[in-house]
Fold this protein.
Amino acid sequence: MPGLSIGSGLSAGNGLSSAQGLSRGGGLSFPGFTSLSLNFTTPPLASFLTPVATSLGTLYDSSGYITYRPNNLLLNSATLSTQNVTTTAASPYILSFKGTGTVTLSGTSTAGPLIGTGGSDRVFLKFSPTAGTLTLTVSGTVTEAQLEAVTYETEPRTYNATTGSAYYGPRYDYNPAHGQSGALLLQELSRTNQISYSTNLSNAAYAKTNTTATLSAVLGPDNYTASYYITATAANGNVKYSAGTSTVTARCASVFLRRKTGTGVITFGAGTSLVTATDVPSFGWTRYQVNLLGQSGTYSVTTNVVTVTLTNHGFQTNDSLRVDYTSGTAADTNISTITVVDANTFTYSQTTANTSGNVTVYPASVRLNLATNTDEVYSFGWHFELGYGATSYIPTNGAVITRTVEYIKADGTDFTNNFSINNGAYLIDFVCAADTIPSTGVGAGATFLTVGNIAGSTTTLSTFLNLSDDSIRLSSTGGATIVSSKPSFSFGERVKIGASFNRATQPFTLAYKDGVNSSTNASFPTPDRLVLNSSITFTNNSAIWLKRLNYYNSYKTGAEMLALMAGM
């Protein structure tokens, strides 16, 4: 058996390992052992863990291409009946089934029909619908049916049965940002790509100044969608997309780039929030991201013309802004175009601005700038999302699209059969899938692991591993909170944290690489569930690539947890 070793336990290939306990294939526990090791680098999930997601989401598969999570958008797929499905124009789909029946498509696609050839044969059809309602009319016997959003795939993926709701499977992601092995991507963030055409630079929504955009034969990182290349026809040629939004918050823009010709500087962003892409590869794709932060200054009004004074603002004429008047009586508003007067001043028109005061402006457009005339760069996957830190790419083609929250849970007997209700130590190993900055965005209350209890309509919490304000916090319902000073996590940073408790004697300990913090005054309800990547109320801002969770059904001291984490 390849990979078999005996030390303090047993390991074999991808499956069997033991420290003080035993786990198999991502986390099957065995009675009589005192620990549980859950490996999230490869599927499948342990049977007692339930993934919760209600929308499509992208990932890098093991081939290195961007595609969608495992999904089946049909209901009651075992024996299919006629039904409607909402489709987008952002991706192709594959319809497949077994049986001798026929499925006829109408509405957003008239491809097909798809005709079955036998009970054990899976037939399939790949097609690209428009946005709207797809009607699938069934005649005859159609079994094990699946409709899945895909990218480069030409054949159906593994069949996932559904009953009363669509299936959105876990995202095992091979993004090189977190290392060579896979990891379970969890983004307990509802994010919307505010750019309606994420790849189609010929659309009029992209304003081009001294540039042209040309459809190319070079495929994007999804190995399916043709990219555009941008050519500078003068120095500092640029392409701009305005994504107006009424929300006053930090936002993040991102784009995939690949050098075509030239060596000049490429910048991406708005105002003073810019990323300089001097290392754009000529082969393969690199994603660049920039957090577009608010910039504060003063304003005055003369006959409905607002003049903003903001030192070295960095904006360009025709940029778009969201304006937050922090003093004075003017109404907050979206400004579609500004006129730059000089490096410290710009103006715009607003009839309701009737006084002067202080103002904070947030970029509502993003610009890709090529410093050198005739330079060319391939571009793919423009992204503009409210919040701090870029999350997984959301393809669009004609309309904005939202990816909803996702997390992993174990509750009921799935919890009590695998975890102690009286004490335990939880050691979590993950990589940050977005910059995690407290109070600014992803880290505003980000909770990586929770053990807790919900009784009726009353929620009582025992929250583990919470990044809040300026630190990692471990808190209990009895009021005990212990803190490890760690103000932020960066995109791609590997993190290992441990937390342990004993309900009877009430020790409560947090372990992180910068030390150990403890309390002896923690009070817990009887826990009835484990939630990974969210608070127990599922309101959170974390985004992680989860590698491993090691659980011990006894209290561990801080020194013991640090030693155990060193071996994870």
Observations:
- Residues 1-33, 438-444, 456-461 have pLDDT under 50 and may be disordered.
- Residues 40-48+407-566 form a domain with the Jelly Rolls fold (CATH 2.60.120.200).
- The two ends are 23 Å apart (CA to CA).
